[in-house]
Amino acid sequence: MVDKWLNWENGKEWGEIQCPMLDDEYVMTYYPEGVPCYYSYTAPFVHDGDVYYYRYDHDEGCWDTDTLFCMGEYIEGMILKFGQRAY
Question: Which structural domain, as residue segments, surrounds residue 50?
Fold first, then answer.
C-alpha cells in the first residue's frame, strides 16, 4: 500500500504503534509541535500518486480505522506540515 514514506516538517515523534491498516506493521507516529498529544499520526505516505496518513486516538486507545486522510496529489519535493488541509 505504501509506495513511498514522507516526513512531517513540524512533527515530533510519539513512538511506534502497530497499525492494522498497514498490514499490522509497527509505524512511528508523530504529533504537532507545541500541542498536547491527543492524537498521533503516521508519517505521510504516497499511494497511487496521492499523499495519505492515518490517525491514532490516544483517548480511545485505538486507530481511526474507518478514516484515511488524503492530502492531495504528490509532488516531488513537497513540504508537509501539520495544519495543512487534508482533502
Answer: 4-73
**Which of 20, 2, 12, 54 has its CA nearest to residue 37?**
12
Q: Is residue 34 part of a domain?
A: yes
Distant-in-sequence, close-in-space partners of 75: CB < 8 Å, separation ≥ 6 = none
pLDDT digits (tens, 9 = 90+) for 14-73: 999 999 999 999 999 999 999 999 999 999 999 999 999 999 999 999 999 999 999 999
* pTM of this structure: 0.91
How many C-beta atoms surround the C-beta of residue 79 within 10 A?
11
Q: Establish if 51 belongs to a structural domain.
A: yes
